[in-house]
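Memo to structure team: turn this sequence into structure tokens by end of day. - J.P.
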Amino acid sequence: MNERFAAILDALEGWSRAAKLGAVLITMFLLGVVDYLTGSEISFAFFYLIPVSFVAWFIGHRWVVFFSISSSVVWWGANFLAGETFSHPLIPWWNTGTRLGFFIVVGLLLARLRQLLEKEREISRTDFLTGALNRRAFYDLSTRELQRARRYRHPFTLAYIDLDNFKQVNDRFGHREGDQLLKVVAQNLAASLRSTDVVARLGGDEFAVLLTETGVASAEATLPKLREGLLAEMARFGWPVTFSIGVLVCEAPPSSVEEMIRRADDLMYSVKAAGKNAIHYDRVSAQQEARPGISIAQPQGADR
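Reply from structure team:
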């Protein structure tokens, strides 16, 4: 049941703003019609919270006041047309005002709750030091990409990146300098990639990059440039750090995210064993044929 409800919420999130606004307007109109047809003796005021709540949750707090006023006006109009009478002419204005205030308060509280939940969700998915995604978020997004690849047969690429000689930076310059280095790496990776790509810190000095819609040719064009940019940043700060990168190109979806990460990790360790500071590639094809590793740049560096 929870999964079905979550699927409905995800589907609504995918609607365009115009579609969401249209749904709200149609709902308000239908509520007004039903309110009018049932007469003034049956109150439908509570149900006008439906469009207001929808706006607060899916569109944002800036629209709450507008649709709260609109809902109040529709409610008032339906009851007026239904022939509702009052003992004093100010009573309908008082009723409309109290309902308006109620709609606004509930709507703004819901919008604020949504903001807090989104902020908490973002914090839970973000590495506190670098601002990149954390391991949990990376697994979630990789799972979605794997499912998408199975459905649409689109390729994607995983790059597993390890920082060579990072321990030397901590030992020589201190952990504060090491933290700054990790931040620079994360920022450089994010700035060098597309908005659809994913950058995550998996722990320690290891990063992962998920490149969507990326096959062998694109991976071989992108990853060397990415590594060159990182090396340039290290040279600019005077840090003796290089990068060992294992790249798994998934032309066909692997069996699981764990298998995908394990293979990319093994490729990275093969770079370490061969002397560091290079890139090794492999691929998952429909026949599960492995492509021989390709090293780019000359290996250098000390122990990990």
